[in-house]
Amino acid sequence: MKYIITLVLGALIGAAIFIVGMIYSPFVADRGLSPLSVSDSEVLTLNFSIVPADAITFTNDGESRSKPFPEKVLQLWEAPIRLTSALTTVMYDARNQTAGIGVKFSSQSEQTRLLRGDALVDSVWYVYLPGRGSLFMEQSENYWSFLRDVGLPAHRSSANSWKGTWLGDMTAGPGALGTARVTGGAGLLQGITMEGLESLSAQAYSADDGPIAADGRLLIELPAANAMSEDEISVAE
Amino acid sequence: MSVAANGGNVEAFHVKVPTDRIMIGSPDRQPPLPIGMQWPEDQLLQDVRIELFKIRNARDTVVGVASRTAATEESNEIIDWVVHLPARGSIFVNMTPAPEESGIRIGELRAGSREFAPMSGSMTERWVPDTSGDEDAPQGHIELLTNFVGELDAL
Q1: Beta-strand runs (E) in chain A
Q2: Residue A3: pLDDT above 90?
Q3: Do A134 and B48 touch (CB under 8 A)?
Q4: Whose CB has fewer CB within 10 Å in chain B, the N or C terminal residue?
Q5: Do B82 and A105 touch (CB under 8 A)?
């Protein structure tokens, strides 16, 4: 009997050490400042809410933490798209005026490696900016820092929630500097290739319902030769 | 998937209407789809129509999701498709606004991710009404045909 107890205790302690080591691993470094934060080029800023209830529509498999909105939206329950979500939301410029509309498709990546601090999501944005054109942004996002700093504390909290201030860059590629690839589709943006970045700012998170108060931001670096005037496009400060 | 005579892979997808429709985002749509959706009242978005769909492959299996955006800017019309196929990648196609006489609209692949990143080519869309006469049959389907070719590897 004492051997079984020792075995169980050893397994539990080993699992605890493994989890603590994974969360506070010295080999998983936080990413530094985004290259777009120090860019001299004009940067287009688009803000949006990531709270499903603030979206025009949000859908997933219906069994995830974030619930589909509105309630009767068609859910993505089929096996090939069960790990996919679709968000349609209004995009606001840096002055908080409506700039356009965005659609984001996200799928959990099979390249996720939690031991390396990679909680990866493959996502694409389609953004239509009336009077300016459309753009397509492809990226790989890493949610590890968010899960560690927000998701885990929410689970550990007796209230199953987290409150605070968290700001981080989600984009981890495919650009060499951890930026997203952006392509202009129509209008003034047609044919332009740009770099982009998605960041997330969270104030409240529920372990049961997902984000309660959280905003996202797309930063898109406009090439110097194609930078637009203030009248044409609202740019970041 | 098949190989086109002059090179490139041809792949067929379709959307059953209305079965696979997730959203019709338009200021005119009554009742809204999905029920309970509120399209923003901002004047800026009054000439925009965004639809979301599930996408099926040739075997009639749902394999992805897609958005179709139609917008009018002054005299120009914009029609964009984004098709997202999990674990494969996504494609962004900018269509020519006017369909051909046969009803087919052609678009150019502007960008792709993952397996579609090095590709170029075109996609067509066509509305195919249901003619089966079955009571439970869908109204029809949107047929999407992609014809992509990859970059040549250096010898």
Answers
A1: 43-49, 57-59, 84-92, 98-108, 120-129, 133-142, 161-169, 171-173, 180-187, 193-206, 210-221
A2: no
A3: no
A4: C
A5: yes
The answer to whether A124 contacts B94, with C-beta atoms less than 8 Å apart, is no
Candidates B13, B21, B22, partner chain A, best to mutate (most A CBs within 10 A): B22
Q: Has residue B154 been placed in a domain? A: no
Phi and psi torsions of A24, nearest 5°: -105, 30
CB atoms within 10 A of CB A39: 15
Asked, for residue B155, whether it belongs to a domain, the answer is no
* Contact residues on chain A for B52, CB-CB shorter than 8 A: 57, 86, 88, 103
Mutate to test the interface with B, among A103, A106, A125, A129 (most CBs of B within 10 A): A103
CATH (domain of B45): 2.40.480.10
The closest of B117, B129, B63 to B89, measured between CA atoms, is: B117
> Do the chains contact at B54 and A130, CB–CB below 8 Å?
no
Per-residue pLDDT tens over the stretch A147-172: 999 999 999 999 999 999 999 999 99
Put simply, the answer to whether A86 touches B21 (Cβ < 8 Å) is: no
Query: How many whole angstroms separate alpha carbon B85 and alpha carbon B57?
Result: 10
Count how many domains chain B has. Answer: 1
What is the model's pLDDT at position B87? Answer: 86
Give pLDDT, residue A236: 40
Please tell me which residue of chain B has the smallest CA distance to A80. Answer: B63
Domain that includes residue B141, residue range: 2-149
